[in-house]
Design goal:
This protein is of the alpha/beta class and about 400 residues long. It has two domains: about 15-40 and about 285-390, Alpha-Beta Complex (Aspartate Aminotransferase, domain 1), CATH 3.90.1150; about 55-280, Aspartate Aminotransferase, domain 2. The protein contains 14 helices and 15 strands. It has a seven-stranded mixed beta sheet with strand order 2-10-9-8-7-3-4, with helices on both faces. The protein has a four-stranded antiparallel beta sheet with strand order 11-12-15-14. Helix 5 (about 120-125) links the parallel strand 3 and strand 4. Helix 4 (about 90-105) runs parallel beside helix 5 and helix 12 (about 285-305) runs parallel beside helix 14 (about 370-395). The longest helix has 25 residues, at about 285-305. About 50% of the residues are buried.
Amino acid sequence: MYDFDTVKHRRGTNSLKWDEWDIPDNCLPMWVADMDFETAPEIKEAIIKRASNGIFGYSIVPDRWQKAISSWWELRYSYKIDPEHLIFCTGVIPAISSIVRKLTTPNENVVIMTPVYNIFFNSIINNGARVLESPLKYINGKYEPDFDDLEDKLSDPQTSLMILCNPQNPGGRIWSRDELSRIGELCKRYDVTVISDEIHCDLTDPGRTYVPFASVSEICRDISVTCIAPTKTFNIAGLQSAAVFAYNRSLRHRVWRGLNTDEVAEPNAFAIDAAIAAYENGEAWLEELRKYIFENKRAVIEYMAENIPQVKVTHSDATYLLWLYTAEVCEDSHDLQEHLKSSAGLYLSEGRIYGAGGERFLRMNIACPRSVLMEGLGRLKKGVDSYSQMKRGDE
């Protein structure tokens, strides 16, 4: 019903992914997390309808926006969000930055389980707090929390906040209910508030679902702020539409004050209409998208096993990002990333920007038509082969 195979040319559209200054014209970008698919036609129609009015003044947040989000979460995740608890925000990262600024004092620790989304570091450091990393365990190609280390970091009297990535980016891990419960109990014990970034929650493999952190227990519900958005799911990041919710009244008020103080709680002319269209009419498109991305994952796994066996694909149940283990090829993926860009025309994200444990990984965005994906895999093989040959020649 929906077309994910047609190649859309994005160069010249001021696209961060395609028009970033250091990406050569012959380079295939498979790095930053946006998709090379058109958004759902139902969303496109809503935007065109809004644009046809021709007047783009200040916008309000209607009750319909809150109800659309609440109904979506109840339908898909059996979790009822009180519509009155939802606060509009221009993006998950603006929300996280604002919350860090509001809920910490200078030099307090914010715990993150690394490797994790690199912009978390910016949100913490730029707002006067300190990053405290709790490295995940990488066991048999899959990540697990190191609860002994996590408790050690949370118990530090200087720690006041934790940012949780659920599902995990870049590894694609869906945290289990038991794992989330343990995290909540530890944070409660040491009086640590949790920001749960759940922006990738809709992008799970077919047959898999994620567990909202706030749904796990009364403890998790009461100590957390959850950040959600339709932007990754429906490829509308440029429309700047997200939501924040917290059950705890006092915590919710503080977050609301922070977002408004920082002026990131007012929508642009298209943000509300696009979000409502996504949550009210986008489910059929999303289900086909999830199947397509899953088939892309299978294609990558099969290709790598047959053609680049020295690069391992980390087990993933969510997101359209694959975390590639390159330890058999290089000591530091930075060198390999640079080589891929210069010699094979392939731009991936290097692993060390995601924190401890990322040094021997590359992140690959596979949300693209299959023909583009296969071209990218061919370039990856070419680059890995030439890099390995070059390293052998240096020995």
